[in-house]
Amino acid sequence: MGSIGDCYNNAVIESFWGRVQTELLNRRRWRTRIELANALFEYLEIFHNRRRRHSSLGMLTPRRVREAHHDRDRVNPASRLRQTRGTSS
């Protein structure tokens, strides 16, 4: 991330919302806000986090990365302790 006022501050979220528009919002009209909210929830929880692979995560899904992170902490609890203290391993 950049510093305040830097043009790179919003790059990640701008990319995310651009992808949401392309993959979900621009594909149909929404009759109600509730219908749109449900579609956004399904997109995020079902597709984006569980099935969509991300190049920035090594072509893994966010869920797989999170599971790998939790598995690592279960195998080596000291790595979690080092992270909370702010020291590197």
Architecture overview:
The protein is an all-alpha fold and 89 residues long. The chain has 2 domains: 1-52; 60-89, no CATH class. Helices cover 58% and strands 0% of the residues. The protein is built from 4 helices and no strands. It has helices at residues 11-23, 33-48, 62-75, 77-85. The longest helix has 16 residues, at 33-48. The relative contact order is 0.06.
Question: What's this model, at a glance?
Answer:
The protein contains four helices and no strands. By secondary structure, the protein is mainly α. It has two domains: 52 residues; 30 residues, no CATH class.
Please give the structural blueprint.
Layout: H1 11-23, H2 33-48, H3 62-75, H4 77-85
Report the principal-axis shape: extended
Distance from first to last alpha carbon: 23 Å
Radius of gyration equals: 18 Å
What's the structural domain tally? 2
- Helix content bin: 55-70%
Which class best fits the helix and strand makeup?
mainly alpha
Order of helices and strands: HHHH
Largest sheet: none
Mean of residue pLDDT values: 76
The DSSP helix count reads: 4
What ranges have pLDDT less than 50 throughout 5 or more consecutive residues? none
Percent strand: under 5%
Number of strands: 0
Comma- or semicolon-separated keywords:
mainly alpha, 89 residues, 2 domains
